[in-house]
Amino acid sequence: MDAKEEWRAKAGPWARATLPDGQQLDVVVLGRTRTVDGRWWYECEAILPARHEGPDGTTKTTGAPTPISVEADEIAQIPGEDYSPVPTQGAVAGRQWVVEKLHQYAVDDPARRLHRRDCWQARNSHDRITTDDAVDLLARKAIAWCDVCRPDKALRRRPTVRQEGAGE
Questions:
Q1: Higher pLDDT, 46 or 156
Q2: Looking at the domain assignment, is residue 161 inside a domain?
Q3: Same domain? 85 vs 138
Q4: Number of domains within the chain
Q5: What is the rounded distance in angstroms from the CA atom of residue 42 to the CA atom of residue 33?
Q6: Would residue 8 count as lying in a domain?
Q7: Using CB atoms within 10 A as the burial measure, which of 18, 63, 146, 162 is most buried?
Q8: Residue 142 belongs to what domain range?
Q9: Is 162 a member of any domain?
Q10: In angstroms, what is the C-alpha Rg of the chain?
Q11: Which run of H or of E encompasses 56?
């Protein structure tokens, strides 16, 4: 393995980014980030040409890592690259579900309701949770589910207890 191949292997996983003008560029993937609006972005480094001037005054072209952010839809994985060590950051890593806090009118009324992240019914104060947490809450029957977005179906869980007022 020559020095260039060795450097490329140490840099991290590579992916192909499509730039806003349609050009494609191979980039080093540094991380994934979910922004507050729920969109995923890849934090990358593009290796762009730069002029390097040596102590003796000679100049040459080198590769300079330049940070860029690319929307997830504009990233294509390159076969053979391992993306598992890429750090993932965001409000909550993984698919997000919304837990809405409900006003309890009676002791038996549910205190919380599970929604898909984009459900328009999640109006009150709420928290975001991971898929694993949502599955756990449904399995323990510790939460009601929204009868509009039906997260229980999306999570491949069937309701085992009828909700008060559901389907009546």
A1: 46
A2: no
A3: no
A4: 2
A5: 6
A6: yes
A7: 146
A8: 97-154
A9: no
A10: 24
A11: none
- Average pLDDT (56-78) is 93
3-state helix, strand, coil in the chain (%, to 5): 15, 40, 45
**Best-predicted range by mean pLDDT (20-24, 32-36, 132-136):** 20-24
Q: Is residue 74 part of a domain?
A: yes
Strands (E), the chain: 14-18, 24-34, 40-53, 59-71, 75-77, 88-89, 97-101, 112-116, 126-129, 144-145
Q: Are 127 and 134 in contact (CB under 8 A)?
A: no
- Rounded to 5°, the CA angle 152-155-160 comes to 40
The pair of structure tokens assigned to 131 is 């898929």
Separation between Cα atoms, residue 136 and residue 5, nearest integer Å: 45
Q: What is the pLDDT of residue 5?
A: 64
What is the C-alpha separation between 98 and 45, in angstroms, rounded?
33
Order across the sheet with 126-129: list the strands. Answer: 126-129, 97-101, 112-116, 144-145
Which has more confidence, 57 or 39?
Answer: 57
Cβ neighbours of 7 (radius 10 Å): 12
Stated pTM of the model: 0.51
